Amino acid sequence: MTIGVAGVGFLGRGIAACLLIHGHRVVGFTPDAGAFAGVRKYIQDAVDEMPECDAGSWSERYIETQSLKDFAECEFVIESVLEDLAIKSHVFDELEAVVASDVPIASNTSALPISSLQAARKHPERFLGMHWAQPAYATRFMELIRGEQTGDDAFEKAVALARSVGKDPAIVRKDVPGFIINRLGYAMYREALHLLESGVADVESIDRAFNNALGLWATFCGPFRWIDITGGPALYAKAMKGVLPTLSNAAEVPKAILDAKSFYEYTPEERAYWEALLHRRAWSLLRLQEEQESERQSSKGTG
Questions:
Q1: What's the CATH architecture for 2-172?
Q2: Which of 109, 143, 166, 220 has its Cα between 20 and 30 A from that of 15?
Q3: pTM of this prediction?
Q4: What is the DSSP code string of 132-201?
């Protein structure tokens, strides 16, 4: 499949790498010609990170362009420009003038309402949300979001594409701010900042507690299954009565994050270490998740 990636910046280049690694043909757009060398290096580094990856001919399937007119033959388009409604709308205007009316256009957004993005479009039924995460080529994460006018055909094509590149897509049936993962995440960030501001613990202690507790189970199950296997809903409901009233419900951004440039101090080498660790962790977790899925399927077959 030929897929256009409109915007090959921080996350877009990872999306392009993922698509290429899984055999698709990619047309990568950026108005900045000076960025192309960095994009190619990023893709090659992504391929090199996984020895068993067989994407040797990826450069023959990758086309660079500074014009969205070159998306004319694309069968699917992923927009990944800045999180700005006006900028995205401008890109959509250009895309609608070029690609066929039945080609799905997915917006890689983490928070902008899909219904708002598709509202003024000529063919709103082919617009949907496709939320990726870094490193885009090495995680199973993806959220697919239906806007109020998203059609079944476009959405089904998005699901099929997601699965073809190794994703395990979460289907967001209602277009709410932040979708699923950011709503969960920001609730956690807010409470972590509340604990810090309240003097309950320092940054390192909060991180350590989170890592050693949630880090145990979050890689293999979600909150609902965790409740099931560690006491059940009734037990957690009883505990919630005493805890929920004490949690932060602040609507304003916490001062602790507004005042912070960084919560830890890093040398360039230390920052590079943590970035490399994230990538290694993503690859190892991907393999583990694939093994776990295989085990689950086997257990179903013998149960």
A1: 3-Layer(aba) Sandwich (3.40)
A2: 220
A3: 0.87
A4: --SSTTS----EEE--TT--HHHHHHHHHHHHHTT---EEE-S--TTTTHHHHHHHHHHHHHHHHHTTS-
